[in-house]
């Protein structure tokens, strides 16, 4: 039965081979018809026209802007427009890829016999090509709009910079001039009308929100916002603190996490409360353009004030001194505590009034008065803070208590802040009001940036210390995965920590220049990314997915190289017939090539295109020309030593008066072990460019034992010759071939000099054998009654 079944299978298989038409049926139009796919997303021409009109409108607004606030509002709208353009471009990319893939499946027009099939394919190809051409055109239009919008942002920044320079250098009335204070007592009629117009619009919005039937909802929203900002902030802070205490390991990481949790709780609750207030105000009647500009700026100002209070509360930590990150004494922290809240409250009120005068277009006298008041109050509060800190520290010293240690950096910050306050007050006195306002705003912004990035740096540093600690589970897992020791793990921690802090420092420095008081986190991120994502860096095409892939490539590559090198050193190379020096050279060369390959693969995983790295190569060439040429020269020399092998590990060499055994050849330098077991580091370039004596090259080098002895003139030369030759020939280490020989070297009034030479098997034994022969010769000379010549007395 089994044989019959096998025969049936063989017959069926033969029929299939003889009739390929059974397997390849003739195609029809229906079989070649494309499988229905998901509809391709496209955008209408009306949307593109709307984006173009919006961009033209923004350009017109920028050209007509007369103050700094209008330019700032236009810049925000341009950034929103760019985000919309990017969103539409992203939505079109999958459709473009899908259409291209379908066209690739259809391929070029074939020379088919079936006209019906050819016609169907042609029709389908034409339809897909038309759709793809449409999407390509839309993407090009969006790209052009994005470029134009980006250029508009650059132009806005240039105009803003020009306005700031003009305003800062403009001298106006001094705060000591009674005319400066006139708007406080006698507001001009036109400005009063503009202010009344703003109040009327606010009143209309207020009446719409509090109309009958809506009062309960509005009151509930306002009450909810108040509860979230007060009670909710405390509850959120306690909850996050509980998570940090119970979920974070005890130590520095828990302390820095608690500080970060305090700031996060403050910012989140403030953001929710602000959104509720905005919803309560616009729920029934949208803001007018005037109120919308005012509300947008006040939202930014509120976040700035929240950051001042939140960061100061987290860093001072007066209620929990053990959570405090900076080294500040408890008395000093308590003395500083009320000033950040006072400064934030005054800025919120005063800057709001100043912004109301800006959006309504009041006269220059009123605007300058508001700026002067803001600058004066901020400078006085900051100056009072500095004086209070100095007084508290002096009191601690007088009381015999040691205050916190003041570092050089902290001293520079204190000095810089004090000087800035003095300059700001002096500018107000001599009439440079805008300059004083600019200085005080910059002080507030510098505090926010420094405090925020100091907190982030501490959190990052503590995280690295915890993750790479050999006592923690993460550190133990990394050690087991990579097969490294504790010192190596500490080195990895140092590298990651240093690199991360350097990046944070770079971003912080950039943030100082791209933002200011009233800058939101989104604007700060966009501005920083615009600088870091310049044309050169943008070509690197680094995305989060590529970063993860590059990290895995680096880790796995390093692990594989280390594992393979251990296998070569311990298992494979010892079983070959190669000498130890050759084995060491091959192992080092393999590791160097492997690490270079891993670096190249890591860069490729990041999406870096080598053709776009000309700017890196140019910078590197400049660095090589000024300071790296020696390193590169030693690196190339090391590769030559490992490949040509003029010297190898184990050779006895002599260079520049130094003789020793080569212990290890690294990429940059070579280790030479001297006779006293000390190690001398010689750059590889010296071994290539200088005269070098390789005593053991080829493995057949012989040592030479040479002794020079001076005898008196009255000795029997033949007797001495026989004695010396017998001492050499009878020593077991002296080779018979070549045979030892003796020469009559010198004849002087002091005596005759005889030189005897013999050869030994290795240069390494010359010293020991020479010592043995000297002992033997002196012994035989004494027994024979022959003395050595005595040197003449010194003159």
From TrEMBL:
User: What are the protein's UniProt keywords?
Assistant: Cell membrane, Membrane, Signal, Transmembrane, Transmembrane helix
- Give start and end of each Mechanosensitive ion channel transmembrane helices 2/3 domain: 588-629
Q: What is its main location?
A: membrane
What membrane topology is annotated for this entry? Multi-pass membrane protein
Q: Where is the Mechanosensitive ion channel MscS C-terminal domain?
A: 710-788
Subcellular compartments: Cell membrane
Q: What is this protein called?
A: Mechanosensitive ion channel protein
Please name the source species.
Pseudomonas laurylsulfativorans
């Amino acid at each position: 039965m089994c044989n019959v079944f096998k025969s049936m299978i063989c017959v069926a298989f033969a029929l299939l081979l003889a009739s390929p038409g059974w397997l390849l049926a003739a195609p029809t139009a229906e079989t070649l018809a494309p499988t229905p796919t998901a509809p391709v997303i496209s955008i209408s021409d009306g949307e593109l026209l709307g984006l173009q009109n919006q961009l033209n409108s923004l350009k017109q607004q920028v050209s007509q802007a007369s103050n700094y606030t209008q330019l700032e509002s236009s810049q925000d709208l341009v950034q929103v427009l760019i985000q919309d353009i990017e969103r539409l471009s992203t939505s079109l990319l999958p459709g473009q890829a899908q259409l291209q893939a379908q066209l690739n499946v259809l391929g070029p027009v074939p020379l088919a016999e079936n006209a019906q099939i050819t016609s169907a394919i042609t029709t389908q190809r034409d339809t897909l090509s038309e759709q793809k051409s449409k999407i390509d055109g839309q993407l090009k239009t969006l790209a052009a709009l994005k470029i134009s919008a980006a250029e508009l942002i650059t132009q806005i920044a240039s105009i803003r910079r020009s306005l700031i320079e003009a305003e800062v250098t403009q001298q106006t009335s001094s705060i000591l001039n009674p005319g400066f204070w006139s708007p406080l007592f006698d507001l001009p009629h036109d400005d009063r009308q503009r202010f009344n117009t703003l109040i009327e619009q606010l009143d209309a919005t207020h009446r719409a929100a509090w109309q009958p039937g809506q009062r309960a909802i509005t009151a509930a929203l306002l009450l909810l916002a108040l509860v979230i900002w007060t009670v909710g902030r405390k509850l959120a802070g306690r909850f996050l603190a509980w998570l940090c205490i119970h979920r974070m390991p005890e130590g520095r990481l828990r302390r820095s996490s608690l500080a970060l949790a305090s700031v996060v709780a403050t910012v989140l609750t403030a953001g929710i409360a602000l959104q509720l207030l905005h919803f309560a105000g616009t729920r029934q009647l949208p803001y007018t353009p005037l109120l919308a500009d005012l509300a947008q700026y006040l939202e930014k100002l509120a976040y700035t004030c929240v950051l001042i209070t939140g960061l100061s509360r987290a860093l001072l930590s007066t209620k929990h001194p053990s959570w405090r990150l900076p080294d500040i004494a408890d008395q000093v922290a308590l003395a500083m505590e009320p000033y950040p809240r006072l400064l934030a409250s005054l800025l919120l009120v005063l800057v709001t009034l100043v912004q109301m005068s800006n959006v309504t277009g009041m006269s220059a006298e009123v605007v300058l008065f508001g700026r002067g008041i803001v600058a004066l109050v901020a400078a006085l509060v900051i100056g009072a803070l500095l004086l209070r800190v100095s007084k508290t520290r002096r009191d601690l010293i007088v009381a015999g208590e040691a205050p916190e240690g003041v570092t050089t950096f902290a001293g520079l910050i204190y000095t810089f802040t004090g000087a800035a306050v003095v300059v700001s007050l002096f500018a107000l006195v001599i009439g440079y009001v805008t300059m004083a306002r600019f200085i005080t705003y910059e002080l507030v912004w510098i505090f926010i940036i420094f405090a925020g990035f100091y907190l982030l740096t501490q959190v990052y540093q503590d995280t690295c210390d915890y993750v790479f600690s050999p006592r923690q589970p993460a550190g133990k897992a990394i050690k087991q995965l990579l097969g490294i020791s504790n010192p190596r793990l500490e080195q990895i921690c140092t590298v990651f920590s240093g690199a991360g802090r350097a990046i944070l420092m770079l971003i912080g420095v950039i943030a100082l220049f791209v933002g200011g008081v009233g800058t939101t986190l989104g604007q700060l991120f966009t501005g920083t990314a615009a600088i870091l994502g310049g044309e050169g860096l943008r070509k690197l095409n680094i995305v989060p997915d590529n970063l993860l892939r590059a990290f895995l490539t680096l880790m796995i590559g390093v692990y594989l190289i280390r594992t393979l090198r251990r296998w070569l050193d311990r298992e494979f190379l010892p079983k070959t017939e190669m000498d130890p020096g050759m084995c060491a050279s091959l192992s080092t060369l393999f590791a160097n090539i492997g690490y270079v390959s891993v670096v190249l693969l890591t860069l490729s995983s990041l999406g870096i295109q080598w053709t776009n790295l000309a700017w890196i190569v140019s910078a590197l060439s400049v660095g090589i020309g000024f300071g790296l040429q020696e390193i590169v020269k030693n690196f190339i020399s090391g590769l030559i030593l490992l490949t040509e092998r003029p010297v190898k590990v184990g050779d006895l060499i002599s260079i520049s008066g130094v003789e020793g055994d080569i212990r290890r050849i690294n990429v940059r330098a070579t280790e030479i072990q001297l006779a006293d077991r000390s190690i001398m580091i010689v750059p590889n370039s010296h071994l290539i460019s200088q005269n070098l004596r390789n005593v053991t090259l080829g493995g057949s080098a012989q040592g030479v034992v040479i002794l020079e002895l001076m005898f008196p003139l009255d000795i029997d030369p033949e007797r001495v010759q026989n004695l010396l030759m017998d001492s050499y020939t009878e020593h077991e280490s002296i080779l018979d071939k070549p045979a030892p020989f003796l020469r009559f070297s010198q004849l002087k009034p002091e005596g005759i000099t005889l030189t005897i030479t013999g050869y030994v098997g290795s240069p390494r034994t010359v010293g020991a054998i020479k010592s043995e022969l000297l002992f033997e010769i002196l012994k035989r000379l004494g027994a024979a009654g022959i003395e050595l010549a005595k040197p003449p007395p010194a003159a």
